[in-house]
Amino acid sequence: QVQFVESGGGLVQPGGSLRLSCAASGSLFSIYTMGWYRQAPGKQRELVALINSGALTNYADFVKGRFTISRDNAKNTVYLQMNSLKPEDTAVYYCNAPHGSGGYLGVWGQGTLVTVAS
Question: What is the rounded distance in angstroms from the CA atom of residue 51 to the CA atom of residue 69?
Fold first, then answer.
């Protein structure tokens, strides 16, 4: 299975920005659709953004206009640029490669914690 290592989280004030990174193992990264997900305390994991092998993107309504997903296939890495952060964006952020109906190609990593607070 593919493994992912997320990084870049931290404490940021409302309105601030962070850039998350997700490094993937293996040699087939460039063909994967990649996604960023998040899980807030007491809530289920939810999809934040997707990027396919052709760099087409899709976003959850609650981040549209604020977050940008991108990828660097040469580095096996997917990024999430988060701007205009809100307290409700506080969560552990994960990446994975969705596959089929509800499945994932990779093992869920530790995630990276984003805390938005003043």
Answer: 7
